[in-house]
Q: What sequence folds into this?
């Protein structure tokens, strides 16, 4: 069963949670500058509170006990034993939401059977248990993203203001930007060894004869020059390609699949958008992409965050977009 709290967390996240069939067809969103509270962590915690409260309020929950949300978050972050596990947390939340929905549809409230896990007793009320369960899910989610501490006082502030219908410090768009920046910084630190390894490779690779480097840091090498037209960023292209890491390990290969791919050039990673515009139909190039022109600092579809990537690309066709 999917966790209900993802209603909130997916609103403040970035497209790394959405699986794609072919990794080259995704263009990561770049975080933009925002105004913060005292620290970025504080702003992120407030954003978490706002997003979680908005999501549950939209499901009909009018009140959350932030005391128990904080308790669960602190226990998870401190790696202490919680009152119940993830599975029980999900059952409790879904039971509560089902109860709310039943009461909307029927004239008389429908009682909900208390949920227990082994010898673990429920908290004082179902709402308290739901609040604790929300805290478990929120803490689990962010801990898996590399967050090691959350200021529960500020998380609670965001939740309480939303539930009370008060004016919040920043809107949903700002929450998204804050969270993108916060998680990006955490991920960049986590991916730092991979980033440094890629930078070392690229600094040496650019010195090789035949390798050219653009202003963005994209490196390319002409294997075969083409004679056809070059695409614009707004065009659709068809190509065959092979993708490897700097150690030569292959992660994708359309040649082996026996099927070239066609896609809009402005809908892929920026290294492809830039690089293919240098080519003419019939050409084969090798591209060497710093992580900033690839998938960024985040892990994506098995590609470690911060990876420099190598591609061999045959440009087979260009389809002009008719305006």
A:
């Amino acid at each position: 069963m999917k966790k209900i709290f993802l209603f909130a967390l997916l609103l403040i996240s970035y497209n790394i949670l959405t699986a794609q069939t072919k990794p080259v067809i995704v263009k990561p969103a770049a975080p933009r500058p925002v105004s913060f509270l005292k620290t970025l962590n504080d702003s992120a915690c407030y954003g978490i509170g706002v997003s979680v409260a908005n999501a549950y309020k939209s499901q009909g929950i009018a009140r959350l006990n932030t005391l128990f949300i904080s308790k669960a978050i602190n226990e998870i972050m401190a790696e202490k034993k919680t009152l119940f596990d993830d599975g029980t947390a999900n059952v409790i939340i879904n039971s509560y939401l089902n109860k709310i929905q039943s009461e909307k549809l029927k004239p008389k409230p429908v009682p909900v059977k208390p949920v227990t896990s082994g010898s673990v007793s429920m908290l004082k009320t179902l709402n308290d248990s739901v609040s604790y369960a929300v805290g478990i899910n929120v803490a689990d989610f962010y801990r898996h993203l590399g967050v090691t501490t959350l200021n529960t006082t500020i998380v609670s502030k965001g939740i309480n203001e939303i539930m009370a219908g008060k004016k919040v410090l920043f809107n949903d768009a700002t929450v998204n930007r804050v969270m993108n920046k916060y998680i990006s910084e955490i991920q960049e630190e986590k991916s730092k060894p991979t980033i440094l390894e890629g930078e070392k490779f690229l600094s040496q690779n650019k010195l090789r004869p035949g390798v050219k480097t653009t202003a963005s840091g994209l490196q390319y090498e002409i294997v075969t020059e083409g004679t056809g037209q070059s695409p614009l960023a707004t065009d659709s292209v068809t190509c065959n390609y092979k993708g490897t890491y700097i150690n030569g390990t292959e992660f994708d290969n359309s040649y082996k699949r026996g099927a070239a791919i066609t896609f809009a050039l402005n809908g892929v990673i920026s290294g492809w958008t830039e690089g293919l515009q240098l080519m003419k139909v019939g050409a084969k190039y090798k591209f060497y992409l710093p992580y900033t022109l690839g998938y960024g600092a985040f892990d994506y579809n098995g590609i470690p965050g911060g990876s420099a990537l190598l591609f061999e690309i045959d440009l087979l066709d260009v389809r002009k977009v008719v305006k």
Notes: DSSP finds ten helices and seven strands in the chain. The chain has two domains: 6-190, 193-319. The first strand starts at residue 211 and ends at 213.
